[in-house]
Each structure stands twice: as C-alpha cells, then as structure tokens.
Amino acid sequence: MSDSGELALALVQSELKELSFVAHRDLNAALPAIEPYGIEATALWAETGRDLFLYDRDAGKAFLRQSPELARATSVVTPWTRQAREFLTFRGSWKALTAYLERFAEAQAAFGAERALAWGAIGLDWGRRHLGSAEIYFATPVAELTDGRGWDGAREVLDPLQALAAERGLLPGLALPGAIKVRALLGPDALRPWLARGAEVLKSGRLRGEAFFRLEGPESEEALLAGLPGFRTQEHERFLALLARAVLGQAPPFASGGLRFGARAFIETDGRTLFWPPAFPSRDEAIAALLHHAGHLAFGSYDEPALEGLFREAGLEHPPLDSDQRITWRPLFALFGEDMVRFQLLFDLCEDLRVDARVQARFPRHVPRLLALAHVPPTGAARPYYEAARASLAGLLDGGQETGRFTPLLAPDADLVTSWRVARAWYEEGDMPPLALADRALAYLPGRSPNSQRPVYPRSRGARVNEEVEEGGGAAAVEKRETKPAPVGPGHDPDLEITPEDTSGSGGRVGVGRPQPAAVSGYRRSLLPPGEGLPYPEWDYREKAYRRDWARVQERALIERDASCAQSLLAQHAGVLRRLRRALQAEKPRRASPHRRQLEGEELDLDATVTYVVDRRTGERPQPAVYRKRRPSQRDTKVLLLADLSTSIMQEAATGDGRVVDRLKAALLLFALSLEEIGDEYAIAGFASRYRNAVSYYPIKTFSERLTADTRAVLGGLSGRLATRMGAAIRHACARFETSGGRRLLLLLSDGRPADYDDGGDERYLHEDTRMAVKEAADRGVHAFCVTLDPAGAPYLERIFGRGHYLIIDTLDELPAKLPQIYLKLRRA
Amino acid sequence: MRGLIERLRGVERDIVQDPGSDGAPYYEAQGAEVAVFEAAWQRRLPVMLKGPTGCGKTRFLEYMAHRLGRPLVSVSCHEDLTSADLVGRFLLEGESTVWQDGPLTRAVKAGAICYLDEIVEARTDSTVIIHPLTDHRRRLPLEKRGLEIEAHEDFLLVISYNPGYQTALKDLKPSTKQRFIAITFDYPPAAIEARILQNEVKGLAADIAERLVAIASQARALKDHGLDEASSTRSLVYAGELMSAGLAPLAAAEAALISPLTDDLELAAALREIVAAHLPA
Questions:
Q1: What's the domain range around A25?
Q2: pTM (2 decimals)?
C-alpha cells in the first residue's frame, strides 16, 4: 500500500518536473509540511495538486503554495484535499479555491472538523450555481458568518439564502454580505422577508437588485425600515409629538435622522428639529429620549441669549455662524485641544442634568425611567462618566440633598452658562479619565445623546411663541421641509431617473391593448419627485401583511384641454343624451315636502286627524298616523367616477372608427350631464401610475365644483398614460369622499386588469391588493362597482369586486349610453 | 327634610321646582361671575354661559338659582330639538286636541330660570323663537294657538354655549349671541381645581387631588391636537370618586380620564403615559 503511495508521489513529481518548473518547486517546498501525515495522504495531496494544476494553472499553484500553512493550522490534510478536488468540477475556480484554502482553518476552528466540510460543501454548491457566489462565500470571514454562535449562527444566514436560491433563483453570493449586515441590524427573523423583497427587486432590474443587496438606495432603506426591530419612531411620531406637547406645551418638528449600522440610537437636533433614529431599542427609551431632547429645546439649551452667553463665558466673541446662519460648536471645544472629549462629556452631563431636572418637575416619571434604563454600564474609560451621570440623576430623586457640585444647575434661573461653569470647575479637578472619541457614545446614558452633534439654529425667545402659534400652518411647514435631510441619491437604475410624468411611450402588456407605440399629444412636465405624495398601504398576499406607506399618490391637474372635441362628441351623442334626459326626468327627486300620516312628528296632520277621528266614530280601530314630519326620509347618494387613464385606452377601437379613449370621453361627458340633470352630488377623477411611488390621481371634477365649460374641455382632452395601480387609486378616492354617512358609490371605469411596471410580473399581487382596497372601501361605507371594457375580465373582476359588483361592456359603442344607466340602476338598488 | 328628599328620589316631579331650603349646591367662585350674574338678574337680562364641557356651568347655574331662590328649568338641546319641543304642541286626546306647554312656556309662565344647555345643538328654528324673549318685549309667541305670553317678571333665560364645540359649522347666529350677557368660564386654576376636587369627593387626599389636576393641565394641552374635548373638572371628580370607591388610581384614571375622551389609540397612549407619570401604580 505504502509502496503504491510512494510510487504515485514519485509519478506526480516527475510529471510536474516536466510540466512546470514553478509547480515542481512549489510541490517540493510544501512536501516537508505534508509528509508527516502519511504517505497516502501525501500522495493524494500531490495528485490533487497536479490535477488542479493541469485543469487550471492558478488553482494548482494556489493549492500547492497554501497547503503547508493550512496543514499546520488544521493538523489534517486529507479532508480539505478531498474537498479541494471538487473544485475540479467547474472552470475558473482558482479564486474561489484560494479563498477556500485561506478560510478552511478558520472554519475548522469555528465549526469542528466535520462541519468545516459541510461549510465547504455549501460553498461548492453555490459555486455550481454561480461561480462568483462561491468566491464571495469563501472570501467571507467565518467569524462574520457565525456571529459568535458557531454553526447555528452560520445556518441562520445560510439557510434562508439557500432556500431562496432554490425557490426564486436568487444568486446567493450576491446577497450574502448584505444579509450578514442585515442580521446584525435587524436580527435573524427579518432576514427572510428582506431577501424575498430583494429577489423581487432583482427581478425587475439587475442593477436595482444589486444596489438593494449592497444596502444602497431608497428601496433597500425602506425594506430595512420595514423589518427594523424595536420601537419605530416613524410609526409613533404622533404619539411622541402628543406626549411632548402635553408635558412641555410644545412639540418640536421631527425628521428622520437616517439609518446607521452599528450605532446607538441617538437623537440629534439643530435647535429647531429633532432628528430621530429610525428605531429605539424600547418604548421607554424612546419616551425618555423624546422628553429629554424636547426638554433641551423647551428649557433653553439652544436659545440665542444662552448660546451667546456661553461663547462670552468661554472668552470667544460672537458665536461664529456658518453659511446657513447656524452656530457651530467647534471653536468652543477647540479650546480644550486634545482633551476635548473629556470636557464635552462633562459639559453635556451637566446640561443634561439641568434639563432632566426641569423635565422631572413636570413629568415625575422621567428620571426614574432614565435610571431604570441605565442598568448596563459600559466597560472601560466610559464607565466613570456613565456612573457619574447615573449618580447625579439618582441625587435628584433624593429630594435634592445629595446633589453636591450640581446644586447650581437645579436653581430656577440656571441656564446653559451655569452648566458650562459647573462643567469647567469639574474639568479642572481632573478626576475623570481621558476618553477616545470612539468610546464617547458609550458614556451617555440611554435616552441622552451628544448635545452638540450638529450646528444649531439659535432659538430666539420671541420666535418660539410664534412657531407655536403657527405650528402646522404655512411657515412651520415650510421650515420643516427645509430641514429635512437631502433625499437619498438615486440608485443605479437608469429607469429611476426618468421624470415620473413622462406620458409618452408604450404601455407594454398593461391593459388589454396590444403593445404598440402610443401617439399622445400632450406636455411633459417636471412634477413632484417620486416619494412625495400621500402614502397608502398595499396588501402583499404572499406575506399576508400590509406594506406600510407603500404606494404614494400624487394629485395632479390635467392640463390638456380640448373643448372642440367635447363639443363634437356631444353633438355625436345628442340623440342618446335626449333619450337619457327623458329617462332622468322620472328620477328627479321632487321638492322636499313634509311626510304626511306619520306615527310621530312635529305637528298634527289635519287631514289625517279628521279621517282618524271619523274612522274612530264609525267604530273602526284606525292606526293613529296623524302627524306630519318634515325630515327627508332618504339620504342623498354621492358618486365618484374613477376612470382608468392608462396607456391602453389610446388604442384603436375594435369596432367602428376612432379610439377607445373617444368612447371613454363621450361616456364621461354623458355621465356628467346626466348627473347634473338628476342633481346628485358627483365627482369625476382619473388615475394612472408609474411604479408604486408615483400613482397619479387626477381630480377632474370634485363634489363641490359645478360642471363648467372648462371641466368639459378637460374631459374632451383626456389621454392615456402609464399603468393601472388600482388599489392605491381606490384608497385615495375613498379618502376623497369627505363626509361619511349617506350612500356613497365609487364607480370604476377600466379597460384592463390592475397592473404596474414594478409588480415583478406577478399579476396576482396587484389583484389581491385591489381586492383588499375594495374591502377597505366597503368597511368605510363606500360601495365600489367596476365597469370594464375588458371582455376577458370576468374571472379577475369577480375575485376583486365580488359577484354582481362589476359589469363588462362588450361593445365599446354602448359605453356612452350605458354608463349613466348603470348609475341609475345602482342608485335605485 | 332629608327624609323628604329620599322619598322624592325615583318619583316623577314637575320640572318647575322651587329650590329647597336645605344647603346650596357647592360652587367655588373663580372670578366675578357671581356678581355679574346677580346684576344681570336684577335687570332681567338674558345670560349666556360660555365655556368648555364640564367646567362647572351647570353647577354655577344651580348655585345661582338657589341663591336667588328661583326655580330652574333645564333643557338639554339636541339636533332634533324643534321649537315645538320648547314651546309646546297639540296632542291628541280621545277625539280632541289638547295643547301641552313645553318647558320654555312653563318657565315663562312660572317665572323660573330657563336654562337651555348647549343651545348650538338645537335646530335654528328653535333658537329664533327665543328672540322676542330676550329683548325688551319679553314675550313668547305661541304661533299655533295664536297667542302670546308676557313673561313672568322673574323669568330669566340662560343659555350655555361651548365655543368651537364639535365643528365650526354649528355656531350661534350673531343676532342671537348679541342678545345675551356673556359670562366666560374656563377650567379653574390648579389650586382652586384641587380644592374643588377635595370638596366634591369626600376623603380624597390632597396629594392625589393635586396629581389629578397636574394630569388634567397636561392633557388639556392636547386639546385641538386630536382631543376634541379636554379633561374636564367633572371627569377629574369622577376619577377621584372611583379612587375613593377603592379602585386603583391607574385604573380609575383610565376609566374616567382616558377612555371617555378618545378612541384614538395614539392619543390614548399619550394620555396613559401622562397619567402613569403622575399617579402611583
């Protein structure tokens, strides 16, 4: 046996000698490290080196060179040699193999011998699917994979990746680095939904998908926020604002401070706005942080006189202002040179204590809550600061006897300058250790944060009152918008950079139409960027959950007018209109007259009373319905007609001349005129969409407006654009029924199924969402009914609107005459 | 006397009642309202009590009626209240019609103080019929009978009116408003409110009363930020009553100060947070 091993080894050596000087030299150099593991192992190893070399020179050289090191680290040879042979099954594997050899020792140390092989097998499996994935996989440090929890930790990340790779063809390596970060940020449970979302984005565009997995761009941020654990500030913004208002009498404007990896949840402020982290670890911490920071604003940490006094105290002239009229803190702390962090911490500690004491006076649970949160002191140099802050807070609760050096801060007239003086004196004592900037964050108690993180707008005292009065009104709202951080830059998808309201182009598979270039005359306008607009949720049937604020609806005005088209359409349909008018006369409600012969009412109905008395006299037992009531018995019907204005309406009509849109215009015109005739309240609106963040809602006529020549001209000038995100439009339309009560009807006029460019080819997704939107409408008392031109619409419409809640118009020419009739039928029902 | 009152409980009584001679209702004056009312009463000028719900308008009027020794007829107005409900109507009795005086007519005849609570809620036709009663004429026309009643010399009309209540759509016509002497009420200052609480709820600790008042003052900052009606003195009294009946403070506050005020989850959460900050668990 050993003879054959030696023979094989000699054979390999002689072969390599002929083949390559370098390979032969490397083999001989590595041999001494390998030989102690037995001749058979050595022979196998040498053969593997040779085979790899023959298959792919770089792979072979990498194997031979890295072997001695690996053998030393793992104390074995055969297991990884065998596994390395499997790299022979795919081409160009040297990078992956190199990475594998580098990491194998780590894997064995982390997982043990057997599982290290399983670790390698996973990488090989990925490599068979996509070589790049294996390279990324083996290049990933094992410690990152395990997160300190060995094989289970690694499985947490790898299992969902593998499952999705199998289910949706996701390239696992692409998502691995992002997945590890996401696990660290959101926890293992959030990983799967995040990956699923990523697979979807990837399907709609490779560049977008890759950006998503690199955790770049708004889509990624939204997906991360959706899975963020803890107390999410955005969801509770109103609660927090209410609480601040109740306790401090004012609610500062909030803005998102953005998502940060691995950082503590700090609130920052620029003296006007509080910048929230997306989430706090707990509700208690969020409340404590809110009251603390709103307290800073309320109790003068950023007041102009206080800031000026502070700079005077520090021996500086008027505080320097930046281009935005903001005060920068730098010169103040620059006075302390290297020791800046130490002083800044002491200063913050004093000022925080001053503010917390004043908040405590209004909100007795504030300091106890802060103390309860501060139960895990940090280690290292930050600890003394943490403990000192804790002790100073605890001193507040003792009835103010143990406050020591902080006593001046608790005086009613204490301000920022007092904090500076106290901190200065404390600093001079020099009993606190110096601290590195990196450790600074640890020194703050939960709920507190560095006060001088951003340059601040000094608050003048007069202005604060005004702000309060105008809050929610013009000035404050504008201000809030200004202080919002710049939107995250566009991703890498060129699609996203097209202006959202470019109405030209092909509708593709959207609607019933054949894909064809659309001839649209109209204007291009630059409008609101995507992301603005009213947010509405969307139902994801796969997750069985709502996606919060998923679709954004922007109300826009239609600017195309075509009065002559409206005229000619009306002339064309004059006969229909005449017939309709006659039918409508019968529907018109008569003058509001009192209800007679009622069992109860305000007054006696004399006629009824006489009859009643007569009947009584003649010995009958009539019903005493002798009152008159003035109240109308039936409430009015309100109807909102919502027209689908997607590209497909621009196609030629299958029957007769002209295009679908002409019949649509005529139908809307006749509908409007009929409704005017009946006198019911009605509104007309159109909708179109281009991705979820740009759903356009075009109010053509609102309930309160009258039908004017201009409204007719707008109807005459209708044209098709973009796609059909029906659910968002329905939700928005429901919100447009301002009042509740009465009968409310939402009449949808469509020519195709709900679809949008970004539904990832999954028709069912928007169907299910529309179905939910219709259900929501019903819950709000709005009855939805769909009139469609799609002859094949029955299956999906029945699912969405329910049996009997839709009508298919087979012949397009009937639409103008039918639409008002449909309304009348519905109204009578 | 007490025995008599006990006997009257649960018994139908006429709405026009002379105030009893036993103790006056408790009322803590906040300003000059008693003097203003007495002056208006001397000249028989109609009075409008303005102020938020539960700040003591009705209690003030009960107190004044007792002080002046006049019977008090109260009508709570609602949106279906018509002039017939106030003035009277024909009823059918057997084979003939009978006229029945409404509460306003009764008060005009008897010389009582007639109190129309939340007058804004009533239909406009019923607010207009009080016009001739509020100026020098002091007459109530009974249109349907073709009659007119000269008001009793002691008759006084008082309405209450809650500005900004519910919607801006409902407001008194200026022509109605300017016929009245207005007394504006608001929630009392903290010290007085705490005293009121202790007087209303027997055995309520001063400490708890002060905490309840502190809660209310913070909750009142949320009015118009989702809260239509702020925590009233009355709801504080209720909370105090629940506590003195042995309910845990937090549960009492939840039942009296939070749940009745709002159905809005976030608002309720904010109120709960305020309550928890001030009250012992």
A1: 2-227
A2: 0.62
